[in-house]
Amino acid sequence: MADEPTDPLAASKTHRPEGESLNSFQILLLLSVFVIATCGLIYELIAGTLASYLLGDSVTQFSTIIGAYLFAMGIGSWLSKYLDGDLLRWFIRIEILVGIVGGFSAPLLFVLFEYVASFRVVLYGLVGLTGILVGLEIPLLMRILEHQLSFKDLVSRVFTVDYIGALLASVIFPLVLVPQLGLIRTALFFGLLNVLVAAFVLYKFPQTRPYRTAQGMLIGFTILGLLAGFALAERVMTYTESVALQDKVIYSQSTPYQRIVLTSNAREMRLYLNGNLQFSSADEYRYHEALVHPAMQANPRARRVLVLGGGDGLAVRELLKYPALRTIRLVDLDPGMTQLFRQNELLLKLNKRSLLSPKVDVVNADAYTWIRQDTARYDVVVVDFPDPSNYSIGKLYSTAFYRELDRVLAPGGVVVVQSTSPYVARRAFWCIAHTLQAVGLRTFPYHVHVPSFGEWGYVLASRTTERTGWPSPNRLNLPAGLRYVSPLTLRDMTTFAPDMAEVPTEVNRLNNQALVQYFEDEWSAVP
Amino acid sequence: MKPNRRTFLTQTALGVAALATAPLLPGCRTAQAIPGQTLGPNHRAGHWLRGPLPDLTHTAPAETHSAEVVIVGGGIAGLSARRWLAKAGITDVLLLELEEKTGGNSAAGQNSVSAYPWGAHYLPIPDIRNRELLDFLAEAGSITGYNQAGLPLYNEYHLCHDPEERLFINGHWQEGLVPEIGVPTRDRDQIRRFFAEIETLRQAVGTDGRDAFAIPLDHSSADARYRNLDMQSFADYLTQKGFTSPYLRWYLNYCCQDDYGISLEQTSAWAGLHYFAGRKGRAANAPGSAVLTWPEGNAFLADQLRQQAETPTCTNTLAFSLEQTETGVRVLARDLARNRTVAINARTAILATPAFITRRLLGKAAPAAAPQPLTHTPWVVANLTVDALPQGPGVPLCWDNVVYGTDSVGYISANHQHLHDSPQRVITFYKPLTGHTSAQVSEARKRAYGTTREEWITEILAELETAHPSISQHVQEIDIWVWGHGMAAPAVGALWHSNRTVQSQPIGHSIYFAHTDYSGISIFEEAFYSGIRSAQAILANRQSTAL
């Protein structure tokens, strides 16, 4: 922004011969058309992409957004005839407006998605407004150029540049912009371009001198706003994880360890940790009954239980169905998580206040560090860690860790490990079983169907030297009121269809982390 | 000039814009703003020893001690000798160490995030014929047992966890340090051929029936076919064998810098090949290429060596003179903490000090053989505590992380062996100040001592920024350690065509030597065995005099 006391343009104007001035004037304005055309199509693409992100059904979203946008451009073109007087001034104003509306469209839509009831109204309102403003641009420019060129040349040049700009936009949008900048930054960036066109016209054309200061200030502040938005784009994204979640967010919190988000709809509540589904209240009972009851039936004399992970208290809820249990120790890394499940009324209803039971002792610590120091012995150990999706979680599925588990196991004790999906991640599942075997444990792999997860696997393990094993059907003593685990389902769980049957795998050790590799390969193949 | 309203507003606007965009600009944080300190071996005291001595020899010592054996130097060699003597039942041993802690190049530090190394930080699993080393590792808890085939079972907590190594090349972090991404087929063929050749050399046996390349290296074959490789540079050797690939040569240069602190052109071909072909580790539960490592690096091993003997160690004690007496030796040392001189009369002394210190200590008693000048490359090591490590595409953080084409040898993640994850971590950055001539080396040493902490930080962050954009904003603390004399470098001819073995011959029955300077390769195993050898020589002499 020039703020010199003397106007350099005034000086340069006197040096410029008449004919050349006209030429560069044209070229500059045509260049503006090019930028404007690119920006215009980008806003349209952003709105379409955003709508299909947020609302799903991309064919409908794209088609209605494009339709609405083009129609709004039509309105803009029609309205342009009411703009008279200083056309350059109008043009500058409109460019600034397009920059503001178009530039902030994506961040605004992301933020508003969570907070407004009728999101579609906002979406189409914004699309309409952007369309109208973009629709004004070309007719205005053509009128500005009206007396500079013959009509034939004017139409030919303006539309040529316009369509080339559109081509550029449609190519760089999916290939460069979305992957490199993301939607929010792309929108802000093109908003910036629009404003820069305004600034450029303002300072290049001597006619604008009377209002240069006022418009210049406006442009300055808009650029500032857009730059600030650019810097904060990352925060806006994390603020709006509901992009991926279809339902209403009823609770969200960032702890030092993870981002906890709870959503709900008419049918169910869902818990997401760092964007990964932990459970759906509609079918979590299947997962947690299957996690706890086979182990408890395998060791009916159990008195002391250790739960690793499982800060939601849902596995503990199942454990508390055995009145003979004396103590349940739950070790979960994140105090934010266990606190939430001890305080939130909805969640207390779901876990039946399990974490508030006097039998339950909650320890917030890193499970690995904690178990290496633990000297107690347990009859049942329930391992409910996140899936081995990275190397630090992979350590909790290693021979070294399983040796620690074996050490804390009381005579006749059993361990059960949630073991990801044997259907999706077949090698990962069997790798966990083989790793448990490698430290001298006898394994009993089993699986259940949890609709919101799909086919899910577990491995029950006991010492090879002891008789404890998979619960025998005639000695079952299941608590009343179970909705999934029954003598019959217990029998079926251990049968693996050929598409999930055992495959040879490596053993997961700290120094090879074979499991993380399997897990990554197999889950990344899922679309 | 009185600013009018317009300039005021525009300037304010620009100021706000600058503030709003500041987080976008990398490297805005000034080096002075990052807390931390500069550390290093007690080089002032060391140089005091090299310079004209203050006339302490004539002042009467405040105290006189006596011991059967005095060990000067508490690095790995000294500690290993002390341990061996203790195991043999010799309890009247006194070790003198200049620094506050024993351990030498295996120094370490610690903060609230992690322990971290200041120097040596890993040990490749040894050849199973290195019985003494295996026994030590078993005692240290790094070996938990043996399988039926007699292969050691290593403690999984001490084996380097996966993922081990990655290289930043062509904008991408690839797995492993041998360049792969974007490497043309011709280069790949050369790389394959090189490693095939190494495999042959690893198995090779000389005419005397000994391994061509062994650890400790004095166990290697005397076959001229192999030993003559010491007379040419690794670079020449590679060219001669048709290994011209810049990728392969970069990698091998990196290896020479990493292990020896010198370049491909300076390194003896024998030493360059020994780096690979000397590794013959075997384990029941790990591949032969596995390494043992700890958050504190080899300080773990140094502490284990120290704890496996109970004889006294005097730290902060600078031995400055040694003379032979009728009954053995007399050592004069400066107790730096209490600022007084002490004398130690002993039957024998083990000088577990670098060769240049040893010569200084011995004065006239030094062996007549002209000392071969040994290159000791200066090193700079930085420990950075970061709250995040932003990175480009590819493999996530590994234990060893190297950036292709840079001067440093990369950094290791000190938190790697931790069992829990935390966003805060300590990374240890290593940079050898390689010089091609001895003049360049002393120039580099002057630079090492003359460079300010701020200058190092700027240099190190600039290098890290290439692979970790905006890391500067995530650095919470940087400590710098300058090693003036990093370690002995096996330059051309230094191993088999010098007087290195002559220099380590005991003087009479009273002065023995133990240090990696006498083996020419500064690795834990050499120090460990050189300590044992000196202890064994004392024990043998003791036995023969007793008879």
From TrEMBL, chain A:
Spermidine binds at residues 288, 312. It is found in: Cell membrane. InterPro entries: MFS_trans_sf (IPR036259), PABS (IPR030374), PABS_CS (IPR030373), SAM-dependent_MTases_sf (IPR029063), Spermi_synthase (IPR001045). It catalyses: S-adenosyl 3-(methylsulfanyl)propylamine + putrescine = S-methyl-5'-thioadenosine + spermidine + H(+). Catalyzes the irreversible transfer of a propylamine group from the amino donor S-adenosylmethioninamine (decarboxy-AdoMet) to putrescine (1,4-diaminobutane) to yield spermidine. It comes from the Bacteria. Signal peptide: none annotated. Pfam families: Spermine_synth. Keywords: Cell membrane, Membrane, Polyamine biosynthesis, Spermidine biosynthesis, Transferase, Transmembrane, Transmembrane helix. SUPFAM superfamilies: MFS general substrate transporter, S-adenosyl-L-methionine-dependent methyltransferases. S-methyl-5'-thioadenosine binds at residues 258, 332, 366-367. Its main location: membrane. Residues 228-463 form the PABS domain. One of its GO terms (molecular function) is thermospermine synthase activity. Its EC number is 2.5.1.16. The chain crosses the membrane at residues 25-46, 58-79, 91-115, 121-142, 154-177, 183-203, 215-233. This is Polyamine aminopropyltransferase.
